[in-house]
Design brief:
With about 325 residues, the chain is α/β, with parallel strands linked by helices. Helix content is about 45%, strand content about 15%. The protein folds into 2 domains: about 200 residues, Alpha-Beta Complex (Spore Coat Polysaccharide Biosynthesis Protein SpsA, Chain A), CATH 3.90.550.10; about 70 residues.
């Protein structure tokens, strides 16, 4: 497709177990004007063979090279895109029918919005969990990002390429590139979500956040520090300088944040997995412990659920006027 209005970018690294489902979930979308660009980031499993099964589809473009990491791979994929609108996709998740259409229509009708995610449900060993709801108010999204929370789900994103390039794309290597990009994007454009569920986010043992929580926490600490510097109109520091210039108090503070993040992330994931498997008691205990570590997020969740019940059945403007956060 020479002139698609959406370019879907799909980074792949050792994703043979779920890759076919991810690709087919995009190729079956009812929005027809898209291309799917797949970059094999040095996989050592059979991902290459699986991608080859779809090589004859004219909507698919395939590139492979040595491993360079997620941030650099995503920047390269955006550079290869033909469309002005970019949609993210991960190799172990599933885009539900209507996803591309719903997000494209939102961005096409709301020029003030530069990025949108979608509501989503978790997929654990073939079991899905109910949606937690999606924040749609850009102010609440910005507030949550500054607190190190994720009101938008990275692989669900659709965004304007021009804004992405103007802020410098993904900057960090390793972990934390998502929060860093979200924060910079939200400083120059509105960010929202489509409130309907259009995505299944898979949780499994190889999930990045499950296996590299310490690196994630350190990357997020750096991203938040850079955001605070920009708010104060001060120059940012490099990653190396950020960690090298820490005094004893800073090291203790960062160490506490890393431990807090690692434990709360594990508990949060265990809550989701236990709930999906029908282990109600275990899920309740993990949820209570998560709420102790994340009290602000817990209260926001309760308030949002109340808001959703009160708003049930409303349509139209309600879709993008929520005021609460996860």
């Amino acid at each position: 497709m020479s002139n698609p209005n959406v370019s879907v970018i799909l980074p792949v690294y050792n994703a043979e177990a779920f890759l076919a489902d991810a690709i087919e979930s995009i190729l079956s979308q009812d929005h027809k004007s898209f291309e799917l660009i797949i970059l094999n980031d040095g996989s050592t499993d059979s991902s290459h063979k699986i991608i080859g099964m779809y090589a004859d589809d004219p909507r698919v473009r395939y590139v492979e090279r040595e491993n360079r990491g997620l941030g650099e791979t995503l920047n390269e994929l955006v550079g290869l895109a033909r469309a002005g609108i970019i949609a993210r996709m991960d190799a172990d998740d599933i885009s539900l029918q209507g996803r591309l259409r719903a997000q494209w229509e939102l961005l096409a009708s709301r020029p003030e919005i530069g990025m949108c995610g979608t509501n989503y449900e978790f997929l654990v060993d073939g079991h899905t969990t109910a949606s937690r709801g999606a924040i749609v108010d850009p102010r609440a999204i910005r507030s949550a990002l500054l607190q190190g929370r994720f009101p938008v789900c990275h692989p669900t994103l659709m965004f304007r390429r021009s804004i992405f390039e103007s802020i410098g794309g993904y900057r960090l290597r390793g972990c934390g590139e998502d929060l860093d990009m979200f924060l910079r994007f939200s400083e120059v454009s509105l960010v929202t979500n489509v409130s309907s569920v259009y995505f299944r986010y898979r949780l499994h043992g190889k999930s990045l956040a499950a296996s590299r929580s310490r690196l994630l926490a350190e990357g997020y600490a750096y991203a938040r520090e850079c955001a605070r510097a920009r708010v104060r109109d001060e120059p940012e520091v490099s990653v190396e300088e950020f960690f090298s210039r820490m005094g004893p108090v800073d090291q203790i503070r960062t160490g506490i944040y890393v431990r807090w993040f690692s434990v709360s992330e594990r508990l949060n994931r265990e809550t989701i997995i236990s709930k999906a498997k029908g282990q109600s008691i275990r899920a309740t205990i993990c949820l209570a412990l998560t709420a102790i570590l994340r009290p602000k997020a817990a209260w926001a969740r309760v308030l949002q659920l109340v808001f959703q019940r009160q708003s049930r059945g409303n349509t139209g403007a309600q879709e993008h006027d929520g005021k609460l956060e996860r």
